[in-house]
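FW: tagging you since you asked about this chain on Friday. Here's the raw sequence from the shared folder, copied in full. Didn't touch anything.
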Amino acid sequence: MAGSALAESDCKQDYHFCGKNLAEKYGDYDARISASLERAGMDVMDHVKQESLFFCKKGGQVIWQQYCDSCVINNSWGGASDFCDENPDSTMVLDAELTEV
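HL: got it, structure written out here
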């Protein structure tokens, strides 16, 4: 957490910061997200091109992923439980590979 003064709520709202932060850390974050979505049985959707960190599967089921490493607290992805509480029929998809450098 060193070097980051961002609150979890700030990060949840600032998708462009999250995408930039992740791109600086991983370099190939688009490819990693695409691979993660494919493993989840999803097509890469328009959400990716607008750098949103929310991915939705059509047909009523919401798949939620957040890739902002400033919000990852090593025991959970920041904001994930709040989102799932607010969307009880959603499925949270966590990809441990994205936490590795």
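FW: Residues 8-99 form one domain.
HL: agreed, and Residues 15-26 form the longest helix (12 residues).
FW: great, closing this out.
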